[in-house]
Design brief:
about 450 residues; alpha+beta; Nuclear Transport Factor 2, Chain: A; Glucose Permease (Domain IIA); six-stranded antiparallel beta sheet; 24 strands; about 25% helix; binds zinc ion
Length: about 450
């Protein structure tokens, strides 16, 4: 809170009482002097005089505990404030004061606020002493009663800064959980999973204890609260590294440390977190019971797991197709197609002629057609002939050269510096531990 820039709004809400009466009331109500005399409209001299009186009176006054409340679903802010025990009219005035600095109409359920109230005698409503809330991470608002009984608003705002974070961690549980611990949002993690699905088999290659690194942009308040997470600049997992780099037309892609596009032409695993349960070649068909060629590979995954387009392309077949059940075929460039069988349902808008991007969700795993259980049957076609997806000579991604490579290397050097700085505290701690050991 120390970093907040204080701004007091001096418009008054409610009756303007006589100053003398206000001071008497203040003493009765036991307000903290600091709260009482904030603001430029209060003359300095009387304030100091009253302060000493107030301090002398302090022991007689019991402190008031703040009450923490949350706006409930379907409730207005004023209704929520009333639950602190204050009268409807007073709640309305407090909200009116807040409205100068925030949208008090479109309030999200769950918005937390703190109220300090002075309990009313007998059946009377409680009186609001102050009301504090944070409508956004960088903004804190407090409505408090001044010495003359009016309500004033104090607005404290932090500057929001652009920042790039380098974070290290190791896999404990899922990548998702571990990345969240490093401050990554679900959107960033989804991006990481998508990136690595080009290179790694999550089931086989990623183990608990594997360390990983992330560098991402964020907007942060001066006191270090993340307001918004931006681009993923770098990710490293299982020794595989990706650097984000913007090519000419402003479209960002990810490259390895040598400037080679990480994007293979086709994804290795078109289903997140799935493993291969049946390979390409001759086998005894689990439903038909006789031996015949398995024309693709099977990925075991729960029903409803998203299926990703293996590469950029156009949908050329979508619909029922014999033993495949619900089937989808995508045409990529260079005479390559991919096919997806036993689909439970298609993603919204997926139909023949639709353009798809690599990694886009196109359908969901199911067990339609001849299938013993939910899985994805995946095929790759090279000039209309089915080939083994595990050994197909699928084209590699592009490699940066010339001016682009130079710019990429500059970006990479910047990220590497951030990573080294993030590593430094650990290195220091290790060095200290070593020294401690040597001294013993
Ligand atoms: Zn199959």
């Amino acid at each position: 809170m120390r970093d907040f820039r204080l701004r007091e709004l001096c418009r008054r809400h409610g009756p303007r009482a006589l100053a003398g009466t206000g001071v008497a009331m203040a003493l009765l109500m036991g307000w903290k002097t600091g709260e009482l005399f904030l603001g430029s409209h209060t003359p300095a001299k009387p304030a100091a005089a009253v302060e000493s009186v107030a301090q002398a009176a302090k022991p007689m006054v019991a402190a008031l505990e703040p009450v923490s409340l949350k706006v409930l679903r379907g409730e207005t802010l004023a209704e929520a404030v009333q639950r602190a025990g204050v009268a409807p009219e007073e709640a309305r005035r407090a909200v009116e004061a807040l409205a100068e600095a925030m949208d008090t109409v479109n309030i999200k359920a769950g918005l937390a606020f703190e109220a300090i109230v002075r309990p009313g005698r007998n059946d009377a409503h409680a009186q609001l002493v102050s009301l504090s809330l944070q409508p956004s991470p960088a903004k804190a608002l407090t409505v408090s009663r001044t010495f003359d009984g009016a309500l004033t608003l104090k607005e404290m705002e932090e500057k929001i800064l652009d920042d790039t974070v380098a974070a290290n961690g190791d896999i404990e549980g899922s990548l998702y959980e571990s990345a969240t611990k490093l401050g990554a949002t679900p959107a960033i993690t989804a991006q990481v999973v998508k990136l690595f699905s080009h290179k790694l088999d999550f089931q086989r290659d990623i183990q608990p204890g594997d360390d990983f690194k992330l560098v991402f942009d964020r907007k942060v308040t001066e006191s270090g609260k993340t307001v918004e997470v931006g681009e993923l600049r770098y990710a490293e997992l299982h020794g595989v590294k990706f650097y984000r780099f913007e090519r000419g037309r402003g479209e960002a892609e990810y490259f390895d440390e040598n400037g080679k596009n990480i994007k293979g032409f086709l994804l290795r695993t078109p289903v997140d977190g799935a493993r291969i349960t049946s390979k390409f070649g001759m086998r005894r068909h689990p439903v038909l019971g006789y031996t015949r060629a398995h024309q693709g590979i099977d990925f075991g995954a729960g029903a409803g797991t998203p299926i990703l387009a293996a590469g950029d392309g156009v949908v050329v077949e979508s619909g029922r197709k014999g033993g495949y059940g619900n089937w989808l075929r995508i045409r990529h460039s260079g005479g390559w197609d991919t096919g997806y069988g036993h689909i439970s349902r298609y993603a919204k808008g997926v139909r023949k002629g639709m353009r798809v991007r690599q990694g886009e969700v196109v359908a969901y795993v199911g067990s339609t057609g001849l299938a013993t259980g939910p899985h994805l049957h995946y095929e790759i076609f090279q000039r209309d002939k089915r080939v083994n997806p595990l050994s197909a000579k699928v084209p590699q991604g592009t490699v940066l050269a010339g001016r682009e490579l130079k710019a990429f290397k500059a970006e990479k050097a910047h990220i590497d510096t951030l990573l080294a700085a993030a590593d430094a505290p650990q290195a220091q701690a290790l060095a200290q531990a070593d020294t401690a050991k040597a001294l013993r």
